[in-house]
Amino acid sequence: MNYREEIRRLKERKSAIILAHNYQPPGIQDMADVVGDSLELAIAAKATDAPVIIFCGVDFMAETAKILNPGRKVLIPVKDATCPLAAQLTPEMILAARNEHPSAAVVLYINSTARCKAYADVICTSANAVKVVSSLDSREVIVGPDANLAAYIQDKVPGKYIIPLPAHGHCYVHQMFTEDDIREARIRGGRIICHPECRPEIQKMSDLVASTGGMVRSAPEAGTWNVFTERDMGYRLRTLYPGKTFYMREDAVCEDMKKISLEDLRDSLEYERFEIILPADIMEKARSAIERMIEIGR
Ligand code: 13P
Ligand code: SF4
User: Fold this and answer.
1) Residue 218 scores a pLDDT above 80
2) 256-278, pLDDT tens digit by residue?
3) Hey, which of 176, 212, 217 would you mutate to test ligand 1's pocket, going by the most ligand atoms within 8 Å of its Cβ?
4) Could you give phi then psi for residue 208, rounded to 5 degrees?
5) Closest protein CA for atom 8 of ligand 1
6) 172-253 sits in which CATH class?
7) Distance between CA 56 and CA 38 in Å, rounded?
8) Which of 3, 119, 254, 268 has fewest C-beta within 10 Å?
9) pLDDT (tens digit, 9 = 90+) per residue, 94-148?
10) Which pLDDT does position 298 carry in this prediction?
11) Mind listing the pLDDT tens digit for each residue in 19-44?
């Protein structure tokens, strides 16, 4: 029996649901019940009544699913799939920033650890960051850990004073995109869509700035796109829109998003590993910030 058949059989036997992020390798996307951006996956994790959730992504995403489902088993097929951007922020940094700006609200990007989320007023993703920040009463807003997303919010919500924490937090994959990529795309033709984790100057020179879910929704608007985000987003877009052309940077690879193989997914289902376990107090504090975001919506 091959891995795909075994995964289907085990999934049925365990009544499990497989959630996968848009950056997962093609074989994993093919096996998932839901493929989406981090907001869509958090909503799917909250909505499911499956007793076992297998999260194919990086750890902060699986942790979010667990926080929203403390009574269910949430598994991630490999232990060390993490997000180097999330690692750039610590609870100590948040406490120091709160001391320095006592009237500021704290909005944390979903790409943050559960320990950090416990100190946030509300969570956001790139799909709803503008809506989340606009909904707040405070004029000063601490946003972390992505300084490029913070700059994007500042541009869209000029009435707020956004304090990026840390000042230069960034994702190494999206930081790769430069003005040379913009120039090459303009010569090639087609529209340019970039993720808000790209540098502010790249955001300004693009035709659209969107989360990976926003990219899926915008794709019908044109026939050819230059997509400035992780490479396997291209697989997602080509699967949904086979008649369209999507240019990706083949070296824009998030190493941690590539760690899960079909064999790992099969083993995760069979041996129910690796279970996400978090301290109850951290889950409780983080849950209210995540649920507040889900209520605000997209
Ligand atoms: P999305 O929420 O747009 O899927 O982004 C998640 C992410 O990790 C981008 O690098
Ligand atoms: Fe983290 Fe960047 Fe990978 Fe997204 S692409 S999971 S932000 S390292």
Assistant:
1) yes
2) 999 999 999 999 999 999 999 99
3) 212
4) -150, 150
5) 111
6) alpha beta
7) 11
8) 3
9) 999 999 999 999 999 999 999 999 999 999 999 999 999 999 999 999 999 999 9
10) 79
11) 999 999 999 999 999 999 999 999 99
Distance CA 139, CA 263 (A): 49
Asked if residue 211 has its Cβ within 6 Å of ligand 2, the reply is no
Question: How many angstroms is it from 13 CA to the middle of ligand 1?
Answer: 31
Q: Please provide the average confidence, as pLDDT, over all residues in the chain.
A: 98
Residue with tokens 């949904």: 240
Report the atom number in ligand 1 closest to the C-alpha of 254.
10
SS3 42: helix
Q: Are 16 and 42 in contact (CB under 8 A)?
A: no
**pTM confidence score:** 0.97
Q: What is the DSSP string of 201-269?
A: HHHHHSSEE--HHHHHHHGGG-SEEEEES-TTHHHHHHHH-TTSEEE--TT---GGGG---HHHHHHHH
Look up residue 20 and give its two tokens: 């996968």
59 within ligand 1 shell (Cβ under 6 A) = no
Please give the CATH topology (third level) of the domain spanning 86-170.
Answer: Rossmann fold (3.40.50)
* The two domains 86-170 and 172-253 share their CATH topology (first three levels equal): yes
CB of 137 within 8 A of CB of 171? no
Can you tell me the mean pLDDT for 193-207? 98
Q: What is the mean pLDDT of residues 228-254?
A: 98
Q: Which ligand minimizes its atom distance to the CA of 84?
A: 2
Query: What's the maximum distance between 2 C-alpha atoms anywhere in the chain?
Result: 60
Query: In Å, what is the CA distance from 103 to each residue of 47, 106, 160, 161, 228?
Result: 34, 10, 13, 11, 36
| Whole-angstrom distance, CA of residue 278 vs CA of residue 60 | 11
Band (1; pLDDT cuts 50, 70, 90)? low
110: Cβ below 6 Å to ligand 2? no
Domain 3-82+257-277 sits in CATH at 3.40.50.10800
All structural domains of the chain with their residue ranges: 3-82+257-277, 86-170, 172-253
